[in-house]
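the two lines:
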Amino acid sequence: NAGVTQTPKFRVLKTGQSMTLLCAQDMNHEYMYWYRQDPGMGLRLIHYSVGEGTTAKGEVPDGYNVSRLKKQNFLLGLESAAPSQTSVYFCASSYTGTVDEQYFGPGTRLTVT
Amino acid sequence: KNQVEQSPQSLIILEGKNCTLQCNYTVSPFSNLRWYKQDTGRGPVSLTIMTFSENTKSNGRYTATLDADTKQSSLHITASQLSDSASYICVVSAGVTGGGNKLTFGTGTQLKVEL
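prediction for all of em together
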C-alpha cells in the first residue's frame, strides 16, 4: 500500500515550457486535490476532483489544468510555465470531502527559470 | 475572508520539554479543525481532526484542544523528541454549498527540538 505517490520529485523548466505532474493513490479514494506551497503562505488549493471524470477549480487555478480519467490518477498540467509557478506541489486524496483525513503525497519541487 | 493564524512562527525547545502551539481562526461555517505535521521535504501528515462537539483529542504525545466559542485551538506536545522537529500546520475546514468542505491552511509553526 504505497498511499499517495507523485512524479516527478523535482523538475526545472524554462519559461513557456509545458509539463504534467502525475499523482496516483491506491486507497480507492473518491476525492483528490492539487495544492501548491509557497514560503510564508499556507497551502493553497489549485484544483480538485470529487470522482473519476470530474474536476473543479480551487483557490488558485489560473495557469493550470487537470484531468481525472481514472479514479486512482489525478494529473496537473502546466501549459506554459511562468516563474510565478515556481513552488512545491502536493497532491492529496480523501475518501470523502468532509471530515475524512486528507493523505498527502511527498511533493514535487518545480522551478521555472 | 476565512483566515487561520498560528503562533509562534518558530520555536526552539530542549528535548524532553513540553510545548504548546496556538491557532486562531475566523472560518465560517465551521466544520472541523485539523493539525498536521510536516517534516522538511515531505508532505503533511494528519495528527488530529476535531469537530465542533469535540474540545480535546489526543494522538500519543500530541494533544489538541478546541474552543469553538473563542475560535482558538492549541496543540500540546509532551516530552518532546528530536523527531518532533517539523512544521505544525493548523487547518480549518468550512462547509460549502452543495456539500464538501473548503480547507484554510495556516502558515505553520516551525518547531526545532535540540539536545
